[in-house]
What does this fold into?
Amino acid sequence: MDRQVTKLAERQVTVNTMGGRTPSHTSLGLLLRLVHQHWTHAVDAALDDAGFGDIRPPHANVFTFVPAEGIQVSELTRLARVRKQTMAQAVEELEHLGYVERRPHPSDRRARLVFLTSRGQAVRPVAIAAGRRVEARWAELTSPQEIATLQDSLQALLTQLQTETDADATPGKRTRET
It folds into this structure.
């Protein structure tokens, strides 16, 4: 019982509302972080309510990027843009919790692939539904057009940033993420 209470306490996320005030010269990065906190809090609450209270924020990178055909940890690391150690730890924790399993790669004996278990597959619909509820609420607070414009702008920016990153990457070049 104490362990469950502790885990629940660890999962509770305080959303920084800055006392209801936002500085007059708020940076885009800060705004994105604060909005993301609201999003994450809503998804975490939905996961808790659905019985997935043992999932922690770093685990989201695994659920987001594991395809049905499985994926290597090194590829998860690249897609999530996190350190290899961070991803390996998240995969190990999720494997222990029964959300993922590692199986041998069918064409490379040295490699292993990460797959979602049936329990892991059950997480996605809950998280997606929670995300849609957040998006709908934000559309009520602003407008559906503003949310669509924001989404389009962020997608265009992300595409450009990924194109730059891919162009800057050279074979064998060590980056912070690997």
Summary: Residues 1-15 have pLDDT under 50 and may be disordered. The chain is about 60% helix and 5% strand.
